[in-house]
């Protein structure tokens, strides 16, 4: 991978430090400026007003600042460094009013997007952000929200697919700069006695940092497919799956401890030996709901070689896609039980394991390798198969996974998307008839092979071959359906910067309707971090039988719902904070 060390010009507006000093003498009182000035003092001047990512191009299209934004418009790292930058365009906008500050993502230099009458509006971006550096900042924000009724959001990397890290008129707690990371080979959670190898990471640590840290410390960490998603933020608190999950478990399965400020203003330690209810809730109940996590400690696994088998070809062809997916459906139970994880797309399958040697891997994957050899023999354009061994996880990750999820293929961000998800249980693979029905449903849900068809990704990332004894102690709150999930499938739709409200509604509807083909043959279960914005029966789909207990815990720590987010546990769906959703 080539990482270019481009650093964005500092686009954040200057902190309100100057005003804050003046406000020292001004009592907290009636006008909004005063209340924010007082808050700024309380948080050490680290309150600021963010600019939308594309703002420089609305100020001056020929400035060097605009050129930098155009160049990095589709770059995930640049967006996550920027307080006002989000991965998916629509969560910067107010979809309901059309207020936005977007470039044309297909051609960021397209002058139409910034030309009159288009203006640069904050949309859903919070007008005020706190650059969180410690528990006192979060406690101040909870008190502020209680006194002023200004709603809060927690923004870490801004990768969320459901808009849970932005909100018009909110105060944002930005956890991005909590970058500490350390390793203790004999970590003992506070109040517990057993020692585990544990990595303690601040909420702002991203996967590229966690994986580099793991490499340097000769350990393996379970993470997702994308370099810039947060390691202990929304990913972890919502479940967290990756190619190593079949053997090493979901992210939540490896959480040893959280340090979290709960909305009652208390900085707490949650683990298997204290605040167990909160520990359970933070292990799958979803981000932005039970508290603001400042750091988490995650169970590390030993470093180990990674076996990889990749099959791919070039041109879209529905019959070939169907043959590939059918072959996977016929073999996947055996593969998953042997410890393989991976991804399949219309023209690609990638399987990964640390459990087998290179020779064992080739034997185990013989049917897939033979299938690829057949495609090559037929002269299928671009057909190839790779059977590889990497010494550790990082070089594998850097070869296949870095850009916008790697598996998503797109490699770019900054456009607007609708996603939809379903967990597919073991029972869907029982008989030949079941497998045929599943593959037909997946083909229907992928809409292949039109060039603009939504991208279907089959993620073979359920914790299928996990040995519970290897994991962190205590309960998790993800839907129990994850324990039986062989596939997590997603389909994705997208739209342009100038789509009309009715176009956007249409894409959401269409994407969701595609997944109805899979919904019809599987129980209600979806991955909350990659789900439909309008997930039907979401309480059951995301949490199954755990939902009532999670609501009780939510009401214990946050009876006033100072934290609230879209389809989150105990949400208040009538809240004005959802005014920008369609
Ligand atoms: C390109 C791409 C690839 C992905 N690949 C994977 C994958 O392989 N596996 C997988 O499981 N998921 C994957 N995801 C989904 C990912 O888990 C979610 O987008 C998740 O919400 C990201 O969390 P974040 O903290 O990075 O982002 P944010 O958008 O900043 O936050 C997401 C949610 O978590 C809350 N939150 C964040 N930090 C905290 C905190 N410190 N305390 C409390 N609440 C917090 C926010 O309020 C919000 O509700 C991917 C997403 C993208 C865009
Ligand atoms: C825009 O930026 C260019 C390059 O810095 C500069 O020459 C020009 O004067 C600017 N235009 C305005 C209206 O400020
Ligand atoms: C790294 O960890 C592996 C697995 O525990 C071990 O076999 C190896 O000796 C370690 N390497 C170094 C350099 O410590
Ligand atoms: C959106 O903008 C593009 C050019 O940037 C244009 O071709 C297209 O017609 C526009 N679509 C709508 C719905 O206005």
Automatic annotation (TrEMBL):
Classification via Pfam families: BBE, FAD_binding_4
UniProt keyword Nucleotidyltransferase present: no
SUPFAM superfamilies: FAD-binding/transporter-associated domain-like (SSF56176)
Superkingdom of the organism of origin: Eukaryota
InterPro entries per the UniProt record, alphabetical: BBE, FAD-bd_PCMH, FAD-bd_PCMH-like_sf, FAD-bd_PCMH_sub2, FAD-linked_Oxidoreductases_BP, Oxid_FAD_bind_N
Secretion signal span: 1-22
UniProt keyword list: Oxidoreductase, Signal
Gene Ontology terms for molecular function: FAD binding; oxidoreductase activity
Span of domain FAD-binding PCMH-type: 122-303
UniProt record similarity statement: Belongs to the oxygen-dependent FAD-linked oxidoreductase family.
Official protein name in the record: FAD-binding PCMH-type domain-containing protein
Organism of this sequence: Mycena rosella
């Amino acid at each position: 991978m080539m990482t270019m060390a481009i650093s964005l010009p500092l686009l954040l507006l200057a902190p309100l430090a100057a005003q804050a000093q003046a406000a020292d003498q001004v009592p907290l009182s009636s006008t909004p400026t005063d209340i924010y000035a007082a808050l700024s003092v309380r948080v050490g001047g680290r309150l600021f007003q963010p600019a939308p990512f594309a703002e420089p191009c609305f100020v001056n299209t020929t400035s060097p600042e605009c050129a930098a934004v155009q160049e990095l418009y589709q770059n995930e790292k640049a967006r996550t460094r920027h307080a006002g930058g989000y991965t998916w365009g629509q969560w910067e906008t107010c979809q309901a009013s059309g207020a936005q500050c977007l470039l044309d993502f297909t051609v960021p230099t397209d002058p139409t997007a910034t030309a009159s009458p288009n203006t640069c509006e904050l949309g859903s971006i919070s007008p005020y952000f706190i650059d969180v550096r410690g528990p006192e900042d979060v406690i101040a924000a909870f008190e502020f929200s209680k006194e002023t009724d200004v709603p809060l959001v927690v923004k870490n990397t801004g990768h969320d697919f459901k808009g849970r890290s932005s909100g018009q008129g909110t105060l944002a707690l930005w956890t991005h700069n909590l970058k500490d990371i350390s390793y203790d080979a004999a970590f003992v959670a506070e109040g517990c006695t057993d020692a585990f190898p544990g990595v303690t990471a601040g909420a702002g640590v991203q996967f590229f940092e966690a994986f580099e840290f793991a490499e340097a410390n000769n350990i393996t960490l379970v993470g997702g497919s994308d370099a810039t998603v947060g390691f202990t933020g929304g990913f972890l608190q919502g479940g967290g799956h990756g190619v190593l999950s079949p053997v090493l478990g979901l992210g939540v399965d490896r959480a040893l401890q959280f340090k979290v400020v709960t909305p009652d203003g208390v900085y707490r330690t949650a683990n298997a030996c204290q605040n167990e209810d909160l520990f359970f809730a933070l292990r799958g109940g979803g981000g932005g709901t039970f508290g603001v996590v400042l750091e988490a400690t995650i169970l590390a696994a030993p470093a180990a070689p990674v076996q990889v088998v990749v099959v791919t070809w070039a041109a879209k062809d529905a019959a070939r896609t169907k043959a590939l997916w059918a072959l996977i459906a016929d073999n996947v139970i055996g593969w998953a039980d042997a410890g393989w994880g991976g991804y399949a797309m219309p023209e690609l399958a990638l399987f990964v394991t640390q459990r087998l040697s290179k020779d064992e891997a080739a034997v185990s994957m013989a049917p897939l390798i033979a299938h690829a050899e057949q495609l090559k023999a037929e002269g299928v354009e671009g057909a190839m198969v790779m059977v590889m061994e990497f010494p550790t996880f990082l070089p594998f990750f850097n070869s296949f996974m870095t850009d916008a999820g790697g598996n998503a293929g797109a490699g770019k961000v900054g456009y607007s998307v609708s996603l939809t998800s379903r967990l597919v249980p073991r029972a869907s693979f029982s008989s030949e008839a079941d497998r045929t029905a599943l593959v037909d449903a997946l083909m229907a849900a992928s809409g292949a092979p039109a060039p603009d068809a939504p991208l279907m990704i089959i993620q073979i990332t359920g914790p299928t071959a996990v040995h519970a004894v290897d994991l962190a102690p205590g309960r998790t709150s993800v839907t129990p359906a994850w324990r039986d999930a062989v596939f997590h499938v997603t389909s994705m739709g997208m739209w342009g910067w100038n789509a009309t409200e009715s176009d956007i509604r249409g894409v959401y509807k269409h994407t969701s309707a595609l997944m109805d083909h899979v919904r019809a043959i599987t129980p209600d279960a979806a991955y909350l971090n990659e789900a439909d914005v309008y997930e039907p029966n979401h309480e059951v789909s995301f949490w199954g039988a755990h939902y009532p207990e999670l609501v009780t815990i939510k009401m214990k720590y946050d009876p006033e719902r100072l934290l609230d987010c879209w389809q989150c546990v105990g949400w208040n769906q009538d809240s004005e904070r959802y005014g920008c959703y369609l």
